[in-house]
Amino acid sequence: MGQTCAACHTAEPDGEWSRISHQRKTPEGWLMSIARMQVMHGLQISDEDRRTLVKYLADRQGLAPSETAGARYALERRLNTMESFESDAFTQTCARCHSGARVALQRRPAPEWEHLVHFHLGQWPTTEYQALGRDRDWLNLALDKMVPELAETYALESDAWTSWQASAKADPVGQWRLAGQIPGRGEMHATLSVSRSGDDLYSLELEGQYADGTALKGAGQAIVYTGYEWRGDLDIDGVAMRQVFALQGDRLSGRMFETEHDEVGFDISGARLGGDQPQLLAVQPGYLKAGSSTELTLVGADLEGDIELGEGVTLEEVLERNAGTLRVRVRAAADATGLREVRVGSSGAVTLSLYDSIARIRVLPEYSVSRIGGNGSSTPRVYGLFDAEAWAAGSDGIANTEDDYRIGIVPARWSVEPFDARAEEDEDTRFAGVIDAVTGRFTPGAAGPNPERRMSTNNAGNLKVVASVEQDGQSLSGSAQMIVTVQRWNNPPIP
Ligand code: HEC
Ligand code: HEC
Questions:
Q1: Residue 302: what pLDDT?
Q2: Ligand 2 center to residue 87 CA distance, Å?
Q3: CB-based contacts of 31: which residues, under 8 Å, 6+ apart?
Q4: pTM of the model
Q5: CA quadruple 119, 124, 126, 132: dihedral positive or negative?
Q6: Is residue 197 left, alpha or beta, with left meaning phi > 0 and alpha meaning psi from -120 to 50?
Q7: Rounded CA gap, 79 and 243, in Å?
Q8: How far is CA 222 from the centre of its chain?
Q9: pLDDT recorded at residue 31
Q10: Of 350, 339, 368, which is closest to residue 303 (Cα–Cα)?
Q11: Distance CA 487, CA 89 (A)
Q12: What are the Quinohemoprotein amine dehydrogenase alpha subunit haem binding domain coordinates in residue numbering (predicted)?
């Protein structure tokens, strides 16, 4: 830091540096700050030195796990997350150009929040003329209202950080069981073997299978920042994938997504094999029709002890049993409906949903954005990916009431329709892209003007994504809105 940053930042007593020593943030946050120094201020630094500095700063001036808890979606690249914050002032002032999570993932004292406000206006004077800026005295509101609020909500010093720094950190080395689900392909489970390859550096080997039995295999490496921020890069069956996990004792959680298409990814939970007690991660599938018999896979670690399935569910046969997988054939009684808690030995509970019939289908995400791309442009297409979530009517037997309960993600047939009259007139379903009827993956159209469209506009569109599910010869459907829009030119690690 003395060599690369000292040209502009001043040394302070106790070995601190102006600005740099008075902030805490995630590894991605530090990377973005330093990248900004390069782009805006002409800092010269090698990629290797930058990596070293990001690690150094994230370890010493990071965030405790509880401090990132509500905002990990941004690190996990869940770009369709609809944010909501208690403070309207915050939403309007600080979460209109970028995510509010970018702010919530930083800690600073008041003077540092104040510098940040000045930096914004100095760098982007148009802040004051844009919507939610020109109708108010933006600068003074930001300084007088937001700075105190930010310094209070996201203070530099916290008990969480002090105690996290003092606590013993989990060792990633060992074998982990992972349970995951990815839109379009469904569930998977895998074993991840982790060995040390350097200081906070690990080699990874992953071997698993999808619910349909197809194998999943890959290898790569991970680095752990701040004692828990696990970032892995793997090649899985020829596809580059990234892991953004939080490591907590014998548990892992987060997302594993394609490096080039971060919209394509698995939700992941993990448990360490050889831990203190049985850990159950998932029951796959997580639902069972009343009166039917089916095969369930219980995924977890150290799965020893009695299998508890809940009232009305009988264990017919254990098909496979080892520390990480329990494959069983079970039967649900004809009148068994509602939610059950499944346990193995002293493990925590995982929900199994028993249903008689599907009452409604919800398409997730309810609102999403996909993007045109390719066609010689510098950014790839951003796909649309969807899940059809089945819900049952609760004890009142009426759908769309408070006692409805979630059955789970079910296979569906997918199609798109114009979202409104405008979209119909512009033939958005013809130009904006194509949805795969089986997987529900939407591939947006090519980037650039399209002479076939009115005024040669691009292939943007406004679509209704429809999932249809067959049940007893009848078709049930649900829908969601998807905007197909232009490329995102600026795509920083934290949106
Ligand atoms: C060429 C000059 C220059 C160099 C070299 C430089 N910085 Fe900066 N830095 C600035 C200026 C100017 C600001 C204030 C404006 C801003 O935030 O962009 C700043 C602000 C910052 C901030 C506060 C940003 C914020 O969000 O409030 C951080 C953190 C930072 N620098 C880190 C670094 C680190 C780490 C290095 C060395 C790897 C470095 N800088 C090297 C010029 C520089
Ligand atoms: C007019 C649009 C706009 C508004 C409004 C805005 N920001 Fe930003 N903000 C930006 C841009 C652009 C960047 C730089 C992104 C980059 O370098 O990748 C940024 C960067 C940041 C960063 C990262 C800086 C670093 O180096 O650590 C933080 C934190 C931040 N903004 C907080 C805020 C807060 C707090 C507010 C409300 C007071 C706010 N922003 C309002 C556009 C905006």
A1: 98
A2: 17
A3: 50, 54, 493
A4: 0.96
A5: negative
A6: alpha
A7: 16
A8: 18
A9: 98
A10: 350
A11: 29
A12: 3-161
Give Cβ neighbours of residue 356 (< 8 Å, ≥ 6 apart).
Answer: 289, 290, 337, 392
Q: How far apart are the first and last CA of the chain?
A: 27
* Residue of minimum CA distance from atom 38 in ligand 2: 94
Q: What is the DSSP string of 151-162?
A: HHHT-S--HHHH
Task: Pick the residue whose CA is nearest to atom 27 on ligand 2.
Answer: 33
Q: Which residues of the chain register pLDDT less than 50? A: none
**Which residue type occupies 25?**
K
Strands 287-289 and 350-355 come out as parallel
Residue type, 293: S
What pLDDT does residue 16 have?
Answer: 95
The answer, yes or no, to whether any atom of ligand 1 lies below 6 A from the CB of 18, is: no
| Lookup: tokens for 379 | 């950014």
Q: Is the CB of 7 under 6 A from ligand 1?
A: yes
Distance CA 253, CA 415 (A): 32
Going along the chain from its start, the domains and CATH numbers come out as 11-163 (no CATH), 174-272 (2.40.128.120), 279-355 (2.60.40.10), 360-485 (2.60.40.10)
